[in-house]
Amino acid sequence: MPTDAELSGVCGCCGALRPRYKRLVDNIFPEDPEDGLVKTNMEKLTFYALSAPEKLDRIGAYLSERLIRDVSRHRYGYVCIAMEALDQLLMACHCQSINLFVESFLKMVAKLLESEKPNLQILGTNSFVKFANIEEDTPSYHRSYDFFVSRFSEMCHSSHDDLDIRTKPGLSVVYLKRPGA
Question: What sections of the sequence does the record tag as coiled-coil (predicted)?
């Protein structure tokens, strides 16, 4: 089965026609998800995002698109890589242009929390906690966190059959702090 990178262009010359941010995002994903995030390519993506902060929203939207596709295809290794990349971008770019990126980030966290898979819920919870601990220069009060409060409350009262999953950190207790507070 061809990889996403191979499907991005019909022929070898079409790959160069894709926007640079998409090529950089595609390059952080290895052929085999077991290999994890391609660190050198992640460094290139981070440098690009810091150099061109106006592209951060597009990078986030494209990563979101990939994550949603991978969740629906049950390609959880790639989901973990996408969230790791998002977390790294969030930490690196939070000062100058976080508001451009946050909507895509929160959309992906919500997608993970909606999953029936406890490991994806934990991944989303951990990412949200990292986000909540970031100090924003200018807090954005237009964001709504109602979904997250509701979902975390449900997770705190989980009645999952497996006791280990029910008491696993990240699912049993979520410490909510208003982001930017």
Answer: none
Gap between the Cα atoms of 176 and 181, Å rounded: 11
Dist. CA 74–CA 5, nearest whole Å: 18
What does the pLDDT look like over 84-103, one tens digit per residue?
A: 998 899 888 765 566 767 88
Report CA 117 to chain centroid distance, whole Å.
Answer: 16
Cα distances (angstroms) measured from residue 25 to each of 40, 55, 172: 12, 12, 33
For residues 121 and 88, what is the distance between their CA atoms, to the nearest angstrom? 19
**Which of 79, 88, 93 minimizes the C-alpha distance to 130?**
88
| Angle at alpha carbon of residue 59, lines to 58 and 62, rounded to 5° | 85
Q: Are 31 and 7 in contact (CB under 8 A)?
A: no
Q: Which residue has the tokens 């660190």?
A: 39
User: Could you identify the residue written with the tokens 């010359």?
Assistant: 13
- Give the model's pLDDT for residue 31: 95
Residue 180 Ramachandran class (φ > 0 left, ψ -120 to 50 alpha, else beta): left
94: left (phi over 0), alpha (psi -120 to 50) or beta: alpha
Can you read off the two tokens belonging to residue 132? 């909540």
Amino acid present at 57: D
Q: Using one digit for the tens of pLDDT, what is the confidence trace for 9-51?
A: 445 555 568 999 999 999 999 999 999 999 999 999 999 998 9
